[in-house]
User: Fold this.
Amino acid sequence: MKQKNTFHVLLLFVLLTSVLSTRAQDRQVYGTVFENNNGQKAPLVGVVVKTIDGSTGTQTDVDGAYRFDVPRSTERIVFSATSYVSDTIDISRDTNEVEVVLRAVHTLKEAKVKYRRKGNEIGLLDTRKSEMISEREILKAACCNLSESFETTPSIDVSFTDAISGYKQIQMLGLAGPYTLITRENIPDVRGLSAITGLTYTPGSWIAGMQLSKGTGSVVNGYESVAGQLNIELKKPFEEKEPKAYINLYQNIQGRSEANVVLKHKFNKFLSSNLMLHGSGRWRKNDMNNDGFMDQPLNQQFVGLNRWFYFGPKGLEMQFGVKGVYVDQTGGQLNFEKGTEQVLGNPWGFSMNTKRIEGFAKIGKVFTGKKGTSTGLQLSGMHHEQSALYGVRNYDARQNMFYANWIFQTIINNTNHGLKTGLSSLIDNYHEQFENKTYTRSEVVPGAFVEYSYKYLTKFNAILGLRGDYHNLYGFFATPRLHVRYAPFKLTAIRASAGRAQRTANILAENIGYMASRRSFVVSGTDASLPYGLQPEVAWNYGINLTQKFRLNYRDGAFSADYYYTDFQNQIVVDVENPNTVNFYNLNGASYANSLQGQLDYEPIVNLDVRLAYRWYDVKTTYGGVLKRRPLVAQHRAFVNVGYETRNSWRFDYTAQWISSKRLPSLIDQVGITQPSTGAPSFFLMNAQVSKTWNERFEVYVGGENLANYLQPSPIIGASQPFGNNFDASMVWGPVMGRNIYTGIRWKINK
Amino acid sequence: MFSATNMFAQSDKNTEIVTDTLTVSGNCGSCKTRIEKAAYIKGVKRADWNKETKNLIVTYKSSKTSSDEILKSIAAAGHDSDVALATEESYEKLPNCCKYRTGTCDKE
Assistant:
């Protein structure tokens, strides 16, 4: 009896281990095999499906379906049937579902591998975490250009640069906008002289979507990204979903009018073209805070873009385009007119005139015979000139830029090992004149990069990148970067990244906000041969994040948390601790930024989307030997967004956020006494929008921004005496524009 | 193990929640949006349409609606199924890239 029991236990053990070992070593592959029957897919019976080594196999049933277990080591399976061309499919990317269309012997071979991704795609599969900001998301806040497109994105903070120019700047991981690499279809876009102003050169209604990735980026896109990368995709003429014409009109109560047109034309299956136009103007003077200054300048802006796509028959792809920008602004005191002499007694004025022209090209070739192999060349040239006046100060600058990036991409043996390598070249010429001082420089940076990616099923990925660049002024430097992703469960992804970044600080263009003050610009350069006499900025960024998707009560949701740490080896410190100056110098001591964010997205009932987020920054820099919190950075921010769409296409969106206190440096008060460093009050902001769409084609929207009409009281220090010594419009911590109501239309024309 | 499965079956029975896989014609991403939107009639908990397989996986309360009702609503939005065909009028309203009967949608 006892022996029998032992035998049973033993048998059970053997069975159990064999079951477990099958589980561990085998995976099930299934799918359907079709033939192409005059454009209709018809299931194909009796097709032999087997592993490439022939160790195991099966046949398709009457519905063309098959299902069998293959050893985990299997990378390819073969489909064969008489009078059909056999096909070999790579299953190494853990595609358990494989659908194949076999061609009869006399027709061309074509097979498609399809793999099903569950639920919505916030990229659980990518090695780098990337937040997709869809067109739908951008439309939640109808306005207007890129700098205003982040109302519903908790990862990006938006604030005014000063109380005069109306420019907004973004902030990510607690670092100013220029630390984020902003690209348009992977070509560097908002940088150099336009590091702040360039956000306004991309109208929101041209955008098809954006990818936001925090932390270190890919070496393929250069060495500059410190805090992250934001890539913008414009609407593409060859995509069926884009209408032939898209018209967007916008009007707000503060006197801003805007029109956007996006046209596409498909000449034939090879050639297509886009024409995008934007015109806008602010024609009414507003002074909601009664300080005698326009809250935003009057302006006129025109942007145009034309591009051509060619898709050749042998995997050849080309794109050529041009873009032009013209902006003219006049602001300052209400009765300032352009040309008014800037002397005591006359109204204080701001004006800025910008002209910019760009040309770009992309040429790519996919080697159809060699799997996963392609090459591409990105070219971009730009001329930018601007002329600005801030009271008695003038800032005139021009930049010429040429960028080339050649990429070769292939796989090593199978798609588990990918390789990208290439060469790049960046040529930047600057000529800046600020208050009778001239700064000129030429940067020439040739570089080479290699990036290896590895994946193990859908569980583990790693990308290892290294680039070496030779800078004509700073010499050689290496940029290593690493990304790792691990997915312990199907709905869970954990990612980590680390990498180095280097950039040249454009101290004037990135700090135009301080020009709207009487602060004198003091540059403490150490080496006259370097830009502004200053060293390059060098930082290491480390990050870790978790994405967990879930389904609760049949509805999908996602939770994500991330932590990033940026450590500056050198930084060009922008020191405003003394109320009379803004000092620029090389970092001497520590400078770092900690950023922690949690976000929950859930659809509790159909078509009701809820997003809750909270983020915390700890950003400190050594100012004159003392480690202090960086001024004008909010330590906490909490965020809620609710969106609902009815069955008859009414859409409601509401966003509320709470922004915590920010540190203010020591300032001179209204009576001329220097006050110690204090904290600005915390505040709430609320936005809402309602829209209605008819026939998926015509949409009318009405919305409101800053609904509680919260204003920073007297944002301009010394507003009554703009030519006096206390004048400072750069200490902006809250909204300078009050409640704004807007309306407009979006019209898709397909005839 | 078995008792757990039973428990789930039991709770499904109590709330009469049914999951069906239905076939619905369509082409692309915008078809998906339209089909799923039409599928969410009263009583439907979840609808997922796959443009590759043309399968609509739908979860609903059987006391409140049926798969036929759901497919009728989808047909009214312009998409055919075995149960209900879209009227010429509703089909004509579809944008060009969604005209699945002609198969003109080559992209996406």
